[in-house]
Amino acid sequence: MTLESSKTYGEIGALLMAISPFTSFFSSVLGVAGLILVLVAFNELAYYYKDRRIFTNVIYGTLIAIVGIVITAVAIVIAALGLLSVLGFNISNWTTWTTLQNFNWQGFTNWNALVPYALAILGALIVLFVFIVITAIFLRRSYYIVSEKSGVHMFATTGLLTLIGAFLTIIIVGIFLLWISVILLAVSFHRIKA
User: Are the CB atoms for 138 and 57 separated by under 8 Å?
Assistant: First the structure.
């Protein structure tokens, strides 16, 4: 475990995470591979600088993000299935396209039936937003510690941009800022000097 290897893992991992939204089939594979490399890099940095907070904050943030994504996905799927049943779709009969004939257009005008499902989806998105902000707080802590230990102030900038991007995910621009912060993370790893 050397500083040079953690620098290399971090750079490659962050770059894989940055390009993953632009690849079609391999996006999730590249994103997960990049995330694993970044986690390995932070683990090695924690050993090198003898400060376990570097890795624990990143791992807590990652686990919180995964839990938030799973909870949100499950809630949205359940709400979507309920919504489809109100509109006349039955999942068990989706073997042919003839099930589209059962579509209930009047279900769209029955607001009382649609509101609970729309509120469930909105609630799931709010839960995801909260989990993203908590994740960003943990990541920012870790980035600040690495910034102090390594002298690379770009890590602190990356942490701040991650936090701002997380808060702005409530509007779409936050997602772009989070993507920029991943690119800055790669640059930050590149600037580490032994």
Answer: yes
Over the Cα atoms of the chain, what is R_g? 21
Using the predicted structure, report yes or no on whether residue 188 has a pLDDT greater than 70: yes
Q: CA torsion angle for 105, 109, 111, 116 (degrees, to 10)?
A: 10
Residue by residue, DSSP assigns 97-109 as GGGGGG--GGGGT
Of the candidates 149, 140, 131, the one whose C-alpha atom is nearest the C-alpha of residue 50 is 149
Those residues with Cβ within 8 angstroms of residue 193's Cβ, 6 or more apart along the chain or in another chain: 150, 151, 152
Q: Using a pLDDT cut of 90, give the percent of the chain over it.
A: 63
Prediction pTM value: 0.84
Q: Which amino acid is at 140?
A: R
